[in-house]
Amino acid sequence: MPVTTRSCPRSSSRSGPETITEISYPRILRCGDSAIGIEFSDTVSEAANLKVLSLDASLADAPIDGILETIPTYRSLTVFYDPKIVRGAALGEQLLQRAARDAAAPDTGRPLEFPVFYGGEHQADLDEIAQLKNIAAADVIALHSSAEYRVYMIGFAPGFAYLGGLPEILHTPRLAVPRQRIEAGGIGIGGRQSSINSVPGPSGWRFIGRTPFKLFDPARTEAFLLRAGDRITFRSIDMEEARDLDAQVAAGTARLRELVR
Amino acid sequence: MTAVLSIHRSGPLMSVQDDGRYGFRARGVSTSGAMDRDAHAIANALVGNDPGAAAIEFALMGGTFTTDRDVLVAVTGGRCAVDIAAKAVPTWESYLLKAGETLTIGPLRGAVWGYLAISGGITIPEVLGSRSTHLRTALGGLDGRVLSSGDILPLGETGELKPRMLGTPYLRGNAPIAVIPGPQDDYFEESAWKTFLRQPYRTTTSRDRMAMVLDGPALSAFKGHDIVSDATVVGSIQVPGSGKPIVLTADSQTTGGYPKIATVASFELARLAQLPAGRDFMFRKISADVAEELAIHAKDRLSAVIFGLTEK
């Protein structure tokens, strides 16, 4: 079903009074002279995200000449192309046709389990969230580790995973003042989303624990652990297991558990 | 034994860059690479390298270098004083730098990003298919960081040392910067578009390899200044709540949550990046279809310049 929403004139080339046009999805958005977007929604929705990933998978299986690479996000797929090989106008038509044909979105995500040492250096944020929600820290852990999350998007930094599926009670606004440095592996909550930090850096999210696994390691054969569409669960581990896993990750012997469904 | 380049003095934002890291944007990895792709490619071609080879990029200020083997060197990007063994040589030409001689590059005049290519190229290990440095995530380059005095970089095998110069001139005009509306052009009303296209904007000192923050009349997005994050491209013009446009450049993030009023045409990125701080300029709107034609033309023109290099 196409989603519709209200919109005003798209640019100065369409002058005149406030003509209200309906946007129907999917729609094509030009992003310069060598990228084009196909947008399935302007909000966060699992249905739109599945369509994005489905089209991305379709393009990987049966490539269109001239496409160089893609970026799947929450609600749109941006496609980079070589204008010497394919023009954006023609590519846009092909993308719309492909999206219409492949309406059924296969669930291509792998079910993966991340061990998390909750608390630790992030105990303060964990306690604060518990306080804000008027529940025990143990309940925050139980809630966070009982949900299944989907990787909606990889972005912001190499391998950084935006996760949908955070239980509503844990939705918490970001910090007014970001922290200067959060280590890789930090498990964050920002608004309605959860995340796994992939490289050290500043962040305004609240962090409740860490996983020993590294989402991004350019020295590893497979540099990235996750891709958009993967399904994530978290398993609470104690400090001893976290240290064991740290050692295994450092030695390159740790394996992320793919759950059997 | 591998030949090396030694850095004895360096400007503040000097790094190893090639023609970029492609194929990993879906995994959140920026493309990086030279801020001025054409100047970088021409510098490499002048010393007989592949145009995409790894070279040294510097911002505003050059530095002092030596090599332990005879090489060709070329400096491009903008005009600046270049000395080899205390003898002045022009930019945009290649010269023989003998083992042990000192190469000194002064401050750029009227430009921001300069390039030093050395025959054989810089052969540090590739990370994800590229030697470019992404400073914010410390990826690639020399330990992912800016270069400084004392650093030593390995050089590849050099070919015949025949200095070259441009046969076809490489010129850039002062026309307004061409932009293609979108992807969030519909977040901005007619009045905002008029402001954007008819008022001058000014480059500021708030700039690095990730982005350029512009000064000028504020742009208001009537649909709001937050969007559900989608992909950005190099050249995306984001408009945050302040209304001051931010142009994303080589090291920019792959996704972002601000509406993007327009995208700088690929063939205009270098010209904009090279505008010194405090310079007024205008934007002009072109269609994506026209921009594709001009982008292809610009690539052909660069190929012609490289093909037209002549031995001195």
Order of helices and strands of chain A: EEEEHEEHEHHEEEEEEEEHE
Radius of gyration of chain B: 20 Å
Largest sheet of chain A: 7 strands, mixed, barrel
What's the number of domains of chain B? 2
What sort of overall outline of chain B do the alpha carbons produce when their principal axes are compared?
A: globular
Instruction: Return Rg of chain A in Å.
Output: 21 Å
**Main beta sheet strand tally, sense and closure of chain B:** 8 strands, mixed
User: What value does the average pLDDT of chain A take?
Assistant: 88
* Overall spatial form of chain A: globular
- Mean pLDDT across all amino acids of chain B: 96
- What is the straight-line distance between the termini of chain A? 30 Å
Low-confidence stretches of chain A: 1-18
Q: How many angstroms does the end-to-end distance of chain B come to?
A: 30 Å
Physical arrangement of strands within the biggest beta sheet of chain A: 7-14-11-12-9-8-15
Helix content of chain A: 10-25%
Structure commentary:
Chain A has 261 residues and is an alpha+beta fold. Chain A folds into two domains: 23-101, 2-Layer Sandwich (Gyrase A, domain 2); 111-258, Beta Barrel (Cyclophilin), CATH 2.40.100.10. Chain A contains five helices and 16 strands. Chain A has helices at 46-61, 88-101, 123-133, 137-144, 239-251, and strands spanning 4-7, 21-24, 27-30, 35-39, 67-72, 76-81, 111-118, 149-154, 161-164, 179-182, 186-190, 193-196, 201-203, 206-210, 231-236, 257-258. In chain A, strands 7-14-11-12-9-8-15 form a seven-stranded mixed β-barrel. Chain A has a four-stranded antiparallel beta sheet with strand order 3-4-6-5. In chain A, a hairpin with a 2-residue loop joins strand 11 (186-190) and strand 12. Chain B is of the alpha+beta class and 312 residues long. Chain B folds into two domains: 4-165, no CATH class; 177-302, Cyclophilin-like (Cyclophilin, Beta Barrel), CATH 2.40.100. Chain B has helices at 37-46, 190-198, 269-273, 288-307, and strands at 4-10, 15-17, 55-59, 63-67, 71-76, 82-84, 87-89, 94-97, 103-105, 113-118, 152-154, 164-165, 177-181, 201-207, 211-215, 230-231, 236-238, 246-248, 255-256, 260-264, 280-281, 283-285, 310-311. Chain B has an eight-stranded mixed beta sheet with strand order 21-14-15-18-17-20-13-22. In chain B, a hairpin with a 2-residue loop joins strand 6 and strand 7. The two termini of chain B are 30 Å apart. The model of chain B has no long low-confidence stretch (mean pLDDT 96). The interface between A and B is large, with 56 and 54 residues.
